[in-house]
Amino acid sequence: MGCPITPHVERLVDLAIEEDLGRGDATARAEVIGPVTARADILAKEACVVCGLDLAEYVMTRVDPNIQFDALVPDGNDVQPGTRIASVTGPARGILAAERTALNFLMRLSGIATLTRRYVRLVAATDTKAKVVDTRKTTPAWRLLEKYAVAMGGGLNHRMDLASGVLIKENHIAITGSVKQAVTRARKFATHTVRIEVEVQSIEELKEAIEAGADIVLLDNMTPDQISHAVAEAAGKVIIEASGGIDTTTVAKVAIAGVDYISIGKLTHSAPSVDLSLLIEEAEIPEDMED
Question: Which pTM does this prediction carry?
């Protein structure tokens, strides 16, 4: 699976290029005289999971179609500091103009993939059935890319948008009056192919959701002990998901409590970008252009 370059992503890239290059590159105009050709490497400056190389290539060639971009590792690979992850050859002005925008995308997506891999490994070490999933707490307009990065880190994707499934949360329950009423309304609305998930905050609400016919129950902000109690109460009648306040210090305990899925907003809303750099290794300057 490659990084999705959809019409939406193309528009996002165009906006990013316009943001950085819309008025031109003053420094390159001054420093790059004539048709200089350069070769550059993109390097990992820290251990990370690489993600977004196809997108970085798209950015580069969008700025200058004469740029040749060669990915040296596939998305989803763990790399160590100093690893060359891509090689770029072409007009020096084009490479310099595209550098920051391409790296911004690549660093952000690699950061999400790296953090996701950390959570996935912590859960895998528990030898349980639990799976790590993301949420809709994504950067506006970046959701498709950020969820791709989660997948490259080994996580699973939750809903892509509000039409992707029924998830009854506390505000829906506040409007309808009860968990039972909310599930009942959803069951009348949803087709037989749609699973109904409902968020609960107590064992009493869990029981109500099961009795009303929910397919999935989301345990919101419960401690591992409370989750273990809820899993025992559910007794396999529904799929159990846990969410809220889960971090690297608690995710293994939540998995051991017996849930099926652990949804973590931090995968996308709090992942730090990884440190990558682009360094020009060679430059071919025409003889008549040299000082």
Answer: 0.95
